[in-house]
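re: ur question from earlier - yeah i can do the single chain one, its not a big deal. heres the input i used so u can compare w yours
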Amino acid sequence: MQETFAEVDWTFERMVVLDCEHVYTAESLDHLMDMKEYYEMDKNDNWVRIKPITSQPSESKKCPQCRAPIKNIYRYRRSTNKHVLDVQNKKFLMKYDNYLKKLNKDITTATRKLENNRKKFLEEIQKPLKIQGKKETRIAEIADSTLEVTSTEQYTLLEKYYSIPMIHEIEWTRHISALLTIYRKLTLLMFETKSPPYKLAYEAAVSLLYASKTQTDICDLGKNFESLDILDYDSPARQQLKLKETLAEVGLITPKIDVRMYLDAFFEIINIQKVIFYEVSQVITELSKIRGTNDNLVSYDKNWIEFGEIIIEAIKKHLDIIITTAQQNNYRRHVVLSSLELAEIDCKAEWFKLKYPPNGTINPIIQKSVKHRCAEIENMCQDICNMLSTMNVEYFEKQCKSRIEEIHRELVDIRTAAMRDIPLTREERLQIFKVMNSEFQGSG
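and the output i got, formated as tokens:
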């Protein structure tokens, strides 16, 4: 039963006056504010030490009488600050989620524009170029190969990286500029989603407490200079101990960052890369028609083939990062989707290898390589099926298995094409071209 102000013995009870001017005992408000979630209590019901704050969302605490928010009470600062942090985190996720949806629509619009302009672009690209004397075409070493996301320079500096003529580079850059603008925005979004409010609060708390401990140690050093072992003062062991003490006092656990948005943004980058690869394959087809028609002309199709191979490897690298990140954070749906994407791009890579083999022939080395890779793709598909069977998501499982069946059909065709002992006919090359250039399924 709720007591009135006059019925409470204020000589024993601690008074808490809220901003709304309603008065409560500390004991009654402690229960409302979930103090046991933030502090540990001794046998005498005294709060003795803090508990780590989790990243689980909390509810706003309000006055039981008037429902006004409870704030500016020093005793409950951890609870109120936690709620503020939760609100900021929610706003953070909503902001970037909406931005990601906008970028997804922008990709669709840019791809449509690309399709409309493709005919004109290909007409410019396939204009024969005169040979300017013999020149060794050496593919430049691609810088920043360890970066998480492939730099857009690798898609624009064609002369530097692939010895593709500048006139092609200018037309190409103009053709895909809208997509690359979105690509850069997605890269920035991925970087920003790595620093949500919880992570920033944790880092700030650790930094402040660590600085405070360091200052305290310096003061102690001055007071006990003669008795202190100077060599031990700044030793790695002492620094490690100080950091451990600091982490225990922060009251925030090391934040588990929500990587879903990071992964979704990465998937959109994969989608852009696949569109770029499709455009490159169109260029190669047109330039291949020029080769051999005139000895004084050069098509540079082999240079574009090198470009296509680099794009495929970049997509694979990105998918490996997505798979690893999703596994580490137990995002099983993203593991399945990225593994499916990797199997599909591997099929595209094998078709690409068969369509444009070195010296124009499929030799035993290529046959062995293709056969081995097909077996690896089959094993990958089996692993995906095993994972799906444990997820209990019927519709998602049905969609994924449909894509796996399509992969198996492609593998049969790839093996058949690779195991031939005679050069491919023109009709067979056209069939490979049709399969290789079929539209990719969207990621995510």
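The two ends are 55 Å apart (CA to CA). not sure if urs matches, ping me
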